[in-house]
Amino acid sequence: MVDADQPLDHEFALDRDCTTLSRHVFQQLQSFSADAQDLSALMNRIALAGKLIARRLSRAGLMAGALGFTGEVNVQGESVKKMDVYANEVFISVFKQSGLVCRLASEEMENPYYIPENCPIGRYTLLYDPIDGSSNIDTNINVGSIFAIRQQEGEDLDGTAADLLQAGHKQIGAGYILYGPSTMLVYSIGRGVHAFTLDPSLGEFILSTENIQIPAHGPIYSVNEGNFWQWDEGIRDYIRYMHRHEGYTARYSGALVGDFHRILFQGGVFLYPGTVKKPEGKLRLLYESAPLAYLAKQAGGRASTGTEEILDVLPGKLHQRTPLIIGSKEDVTLVESFLKEQARVREETANVSR
Ligand code: AHG
Ligand code: MN
Ligand code: MN
Q: What pLDDT digit, counting tens, does each position of 229-261 carry?
């Protein structure tokens, strides 16, 4: 018997398939104002970048010149891969003549890239890591792209983009694209965190999980333990605690996006602490740590440097690095407790020897 009051299965499926990213932005903002139109168009462009990158990645092993290193070293001092360059250019290309974004700042460019034809009206800046987890590319393991959207403040007449050096609270949106077994786009514009899956037959990102909440605690700890002897004693104590207690399991893919994505859904903590020689660690604040911290907070989780909320950190420069501890609230707090205890012991020892 068909119940006339209940929608049919195919109506459910049709409605689900029509929940595209741009429609979702309008739903979130409950408006068709000019601002809503802009944000929707902006997310659509980011989605296009994701589709272009996913398309190249899916065939990279069959294409000449898609994989491997370029031989260049970027501003971070890291060897650049051909896919880093391609993905960096994709983001620039999709925003040309969009009227949306005047400046783009990326891991792969020393200074922000200006699109002069957009600048009179483009009120947004896009910060991005075009390929996160580059070391995974040549072996066909998951990689991602990370992005943050900030409102441009002032005219930036001297072209220094100094207004970008503000805390992560200034982000008006953030997200990532995960190139895994399927391509997913996860984003927030300050109203929860939502995941979309690319349906290759439609060429569209379709809503797959709405309002994701990170469990308050989870079993996963995700860290490169190869750095164990370079860490501060507090981090080492935390890892020893993980080893000695039941209920924890290690997962580390070499791509922050993939590791964070798992934790977003299943709970736990990702760490990239500083080392004794490099106290700021490896990850970059403006286009890696801060966007993911924004998502973590929106999903009920936390992100910390160990002593400060990531979203409170004031960058001193565009490519600033920061230690990162991110994920379930209780697990981030547990890591911090080991760092606090170590700081207390250090101070006590210093007082005794005075
Ligand atoms: P990127 O490829 O953008 O330089 O980022 C790599 C980052 C991050 O994705 C990952 O979590 C971490 O570097 C892995 O570093 P290690 O190899 O030092 O563990
Ligand atoms: Mn990265
Ligand atoms: Mn990168």
A: 999 999 999 999 999 999 999 999 999 999 999
Q: Which ligand is nearest to the CA of 284?
A: 2
Q: Are 329 and 345 in contact (CB under 8 A)?
A: no
Residues 229 and 85 in one domain: no
Kindly report the length of the chain: 354
- Output the pTM of the full model: 0.95
- The amino acid present at 159, given as its one-letter code, is G
Question: Could you report how far apart the first and last alpha carbons of the chain are, in Å?
Answer: 85
- Calculate how far, in angstroms, residue 146's C-alpha sits from the geometric centre of ligand 2: 8
Q: Is the CB of 224 under 6 A from ligand 1?
A: yes
The alpha carbon of 18 and the centre of ligand 3 are apart by a number of angstroms equal to 32
| Same domain? 185 vs 224 | no
Are 249 and 178 members of one domain?
Answer: no
Range of the domain at 290: 220-353
Of 209, 228, 246, which residue constitutes the final position of a domain? 209
Residues 127 and 123: their CA atoms lie apart, in Å, by: 13
Strand partners, 154: none
- pLDDT tens per residue across span 140-170: 999 999 999 999 888 887 878 888 999 999 9
Among 155, 184, 209, residue at a domain's last position: 209
What pLDDT score was predicted for residue 2?
Answer: 57
Which among 206, 213, 170, 208 is positioned nearest to 192, based on CA atoms?
A: 213
Return the best residue to mutate from 82, 85, 143, 272 for the ligand 1 pocket (most ligand atoms within 8 A of CB). Answer: 272
Q: 132: domain CATH number?
A: 3.30.540.10
Least confident of 193-197, 233-237, 342-346: 342-346
| 315 CB near ligand 1 (under 6 Å) | no
User: Are 84 and 116 found together in one domain?
Assistant: yes
CA distance 26 to 14: 18
Ligand 1 pocket member 82 (CB < 6 A): no
In angstroms, the CA 116 to CA 283 distance is 30
Task: Give the Cα separation of 193 and 287 in Å (integer).
Answer: 18
Smallest CA separation from ligand 1 atom 3, residue: 132
Count: domains in the chain: 2
